[in-house]
Design goal:
4 helices, mainly alpha, about 75% helix, about 110 residues, about 0% strand
């Protein structure tokens, strides 16, 4: 059953090896942790801490800060694992769905 799911992912993501799938999962995990780690000192620098503002405001603001950090660092971490091509295509598709597709249009 697991092998069938791996084959489905390889076909969907246009990937040839199981190593690439493992690398992609590792990149998603590392980058998520990295983005959350980087957001903490930034929120502290901006004076946004749960001690100063309500946790009901702090956490949504921190998540809003994590989002662009995550998007910017995903292709970089993907590159470190040899998966830049996959993550660059992933970013373009994801950001296009959010309405930022004009950033990736060809100038022809």
């Amino acid at each position: 059953m697991l092998n069938n799911k791996m084959e489905t992912l390889k076909k969907r993501w246009n990937i040839d090896s199981n190593w690439a799938i493992v690398a992609i999962f590792v990149v998603f995990a590392i980058n998520g942790s990295f983005a959350a780690w980087v957001a903490k000192p930034i929120t502290n620098y901006l004076g946004l801490t749960p001690d100063i503002i309500s946790p009901f405001m702090y956490w949504p603001l921190r998540i809003l800060l994590i989002f662009p950090i995550y998007q910017l660092t995903l292709p970089i971490v993907g590159w470190l694992f040899g998966q830049f091509k996959f993550f660059w295509a992933f970013e373009k598709k994801f950001l296009s769905r959010l309405g930022f597709g004009f950033l990736f249009k060809d100038k022809n």
